[in-house]
Amino acid sequence: MIKITLPDGAVREYEAGVSALDIAKSISEGLARKVLAAEINGQVWDATRPITEDASLKLLTWNEDGGKNTFWHSSAHLMAEAVEDMFPGAKFWVGPALEKQPGFYYDIDLGGRQVTEEDLSKLEKKMTELAKQNNSYIRKAMPKAEAIEYFTGKGDEYKLDLLSGLNDGEITFYTQGNFTDLCRGPHIPSTGPIKAIKLTNIAGAYWKNDSNNKMLTRIYGVTFPSQKELDEYLTLLEEAKKRDHRKLGKELGIFTMDDDVGPGLPLWMPNGTIIIEELEKLAKETETKGGYKRVVTPHIAKESMYLTSGHLPYYQDSMYPPMELDGTKYYLKAMNCPHHHKIFSAEHRSYKELPLRLAEYGTCYRYEQSGELFGLMRVRCLHMNDAHIYCTREQFADEFRAVNDMYIKYFRIFGIEKYVMRLSLHEPSKLGQKYINEPELWLETEEMVRQVLKESNIPYIEVPDEGAFYGPKIDVQIWSTIGREFTLATNQVDFAQGRRFGLEFTNKDNAPEVPLIIHRAPLGTHERFIGFLLEHYAGKFPAWLAPVQVKVLPISDKFLPYANSILESLKNADIRGEVDDRNEKIGKKIRDTELMKVPYMLVVGEKEMNDGSASIRRQGKGDLGSKSVDEFIKELTAEIKERRGE
RNA sequence: GCCACUUUAGCUCAGCUGGUAGAGCAACUGAUUUGUAAUCAGUAGGUCGUUGGUUCGAUUCCGACAAGUGGCUCCA
User: Fold this and answer.
1) For residue A198, what are the contacts with CB-CB under 8 A and spacing of at least 6?
2) CATH 3.30.930.10 is the classification of domain A255-295+334-536
3) Could you report the per-residue pLDDT of A225-235, keeping only the tens digit for each?
4) Domain limits, chain A
């Protein structure tokens, strides 16, 4: 007999070899029907796999992530079975559940054949048919030699490659119906629970995520235990598309792209420009308070500067090709750092001047690969909320903390809660190649950064081998409404460029010393930040950011003069207002203004004209009642000044 | 850059198997002077992304290019 500890602490005894599914049955049949997998001693297992020793057990159903992931991974196998049926000889790489969203994919080598949209519906049908057979997923351990023989016979170089990374004794096969795959598992007990199936798209994906490798066909899909849940999920996706920044950006007149200007080069329309200017105002206020000094630098520089900085060899591919004048090459700047360093070195610096903080909303150009461009989130012309802080080692931690505090201040203003701070570290084996060869400095600065994060109580993850070549960095990761991940802002340590540029200051002992540099961009770039804000607010910007803050809606032409007089008062109070002077009914004016997501509407007619008031309507919230225009302006002015979120 | 798909009026989209195009909204004109999410009528709008080819004839079929979309690689 073995002892099984349940999550509530209860201990039950079973025969050795009992499965989680058996245990579930012993509790209740209803529970057993819902079990998809089980956590045995913290590891997710097949619910049908025999347990031979004392263990803690947690049953996993659709309600647990472990259950869902097992469900989706098993669905990938089901899809593979259908694919093999439709494309005999197809070779399979891996088919995991997606990490950040519902669903799964399988990477497949179809031997040059193509999958069409119609094929997807055929595959869906086939999968549904196979799922109904309710075939069990059967696990089988196999010696490595036998596995190699099996796949050599099949001529499957992909599975042989997978096998080469596995040790004898940990190799398992899973079979359901007519499909057998090398797989670590776990799987759900059988295909029956997979009731609703949708293959969402076909894509190419490099084998092992390496662009030098062959491209495999990746089929994405999502499955649910019921049609209802699938429908709900699909509706959710439709809803998400409505707040896609590309759609909102067009509807709200924020930006536009034009073929003749070029891909990835957004044109900021008047409404977008207002948001840009408000963000810059916020940044300037904040940075001035933080002791930053503003600078302005040219958009181009000679090749020699990028050779000095070391950027050219690393970065050339993502820079616009140079323009050549009198035998000298000039590049459009892809980053502002070297220009700022030149300002640092323009004067002799004393330790008394440090920390020196140079800030600029710098315009950069990056020749991103065409396939990488994405609305405002990934562009070729970007305006970066950039600054470089030159400081001593002693000052570093305080400076880094201050920058971190600035991030938090901003995120509070914008109500940004859903993000992950990512601490990107170096990889010791790549010192001298991908990373500057300063092992102690790496460890020292990484630890300083880690301390700052710990003290600020911000949740963060550490990622090895993601640092910049000149030092560790903290990135703020966010997700676009369609689920794509982006770095919104970045805060980087740099102990390399100072030396490359020969930057120095005279320290207390009258000796030259190289400053540490912090690169930081808490508001990222205008492009990505506004793209993010559009989705974050679903276009409903708070009053301080709204391109039009107040729309005055006269009931009829008779009240146009009164409406215009209110507009004058708004202008005098620095409030961005407009009058809807169209010959339309009030219902139509309200509808159009609501759709343009203008925060405040002032409806004015006979009554309001007589007592100098306005009927206030808040976007999305309806009629708020009447108020004197003066009082409204006073309140709105405060709301704007404080940059209130609601 | 790679794989796949898409491109029709300012916008959102129809247009079966090849015979040079339609709707709604927006715009413009007129009527209406309106009280909290769409007043009515009329007018105007497109060498069907560009460019080769097949064909008596191409928006429709094929190719190239461009831009966009979904991914991969990459990234603020």
Assistant:
1) A124, A221, A222, A223, A230, A234
2) yes
3) 999 999 889 88
4) 2-60, 65-235, 255-295+334-536, 550-641
